[in-house]
Please model this.
Amino acid sequence: MQAPQGKRRLNISMTTKTKLEGLLFVLPGFLYTVAVLGYPLVYNFLLSLRNVDVRTFVRGTSTFVGLANFKALFSNPTFLLVLKNTFVFTFGSLVFQFTIGFALALLFAKRFKLAGPVRGLLLIAYMMPMSVTAMLGKNIFGVSGLINDLLLKVGLIQQPVEWLVNTSTAMIGVVAMNCWVGIPFNMLILTSGLTTIPDSLYDSAAVDGATGWQRFRYITLPLLRPAILAVLMLGFIYTFKAFDLMFVMTAGGPLNSTDVLGTYAYQLSFTKYQFSLGAATGMVLFCCLLVVGLFYLRLIAAEED
Amino acid sequence: MPMRVERILSSREARANAIYNIVAITIAVIFLFPIYWLVMMSFKSDAEIFSPVLTYFPRDFTIEPWLLNIRDKEFFMSLRNSCIIATMSMCLSMLIGIPAAYGMGRYKVPGRRIMLLAFLVSQMLPPSLMLTPMYLIFNKMGLLGTFWAPVVAISSGSIPFIVIILRSYFNSIPRSLDDAARIDGCNAIQSFFMIMLPAIKTGIITVAVISFLGGWNDLAYSMTFNVMPEMRPLTANIYKFQSKYGTRWNAIMAYGAILVTPVVLAFVFLQKYIVGGLTAGAVKE
Model:
């Protein structure tokens, strides 16, 4: 502020010098990201406009085909089913993981002895390898698995259901397993949002005679809005790109009923070797993520300023 | 009188506390039941696995399913590969990610908004999208069939994560600390290693654990880039294992339990680091 002349000049030269210094620290990470993610992303886009399959790739004879791959995809009923599945899977997971995660967050934001340790334990489901979760799902949703056994005991079903064999029920199985992973994540983010709401607000509302519901409706929800938006958008991004879960649990089956964009792109590229069609499927996946991603980035940018 | 009121209140609080604890434990038991199931199934005998009656606790407890894995040479190869891939990707991402986080957190670097945007966007790019282009690019570069292919790809996901988490850690170190270091004659590199890194030890442990587990959990990259089973980690060989042992769920569950072990260990010993890191990485600060 009122710095002497000499010191001020020193500051200016320091800043230019340190700016470059800072750049040297950041640059390797930035360049790595551009090279390992940015370049393949552009490559993928160009690939989706050509006709690269195993033959043209080896011979190097692929040609530019414009939007032909996208036309082929959108006129293919399987692809349309896959697209629908991806949205059903995403919204189905979001609804349950958000509602249950929120309920748990309300509990774990309370101050009691076991709040911290138990909350941490639940996170194991979020952090364990998805391939193991998927394998576990395959087992417990099996005909003689845990889910059928429990439902039979409670009397909700009379006969075992072949969850992962029927095209109409397989999606329920993968959504359930995905919620199991997503609930702790939602709980974590929402709990940390809840703990930022000062107690004094609730206390004074209680003094004014606000009911529990009113306090939730007029204090918790509005103040938690940024955390709610963040967790829904991140949830969308994390769920929409699903791959490991279906790949191990159902392999996208039966009859593509649990196939999503991620697994379908993989099949096109690595079992049919139609790389360009796989890349085009990837582009569709990317565009959907981008729309939600832009909203998320705007939210982050608002916080940043 | 006031004392009495206080005592009544605190006994009410104690009761609320007890109720919350009971509810929390009940939820944990229900929610973590699948993990109990995984472990318990891995100790059942073959006869029990194939019996039509489902048991909730092993009737005749056996470690045979675990031995079946441990006696398998391929299992150890996969375990070794998992360790190599997780360690390599942890080291690579920390080597590149920590300095980047330092630069982003401590300096007003030109173009830092663009760079932050790039890091945030790259966190959203899923393996399922990157598989095809990376496969073709790595193929041209001759990286397929080496550990570098999955490691480079996995790190591209961990580096932005590290930058976003540690940026705020570096930011919170008081300015006076590095000024003092400079006056004492430290250059930028020295002050980074000797002053800054020790100051954010907690953050370093957090990103080390999370990026190790990121590599450990990877399936898509390793499975796609390394076709040979000798190069594949445990996650990617589950598939092969399933066809090998068919419906021998006890052996498959033991395999799964071994895969989950590092995650459970990390939570038992390093819980506070992980919980804080996951929160900061998802919604910043």
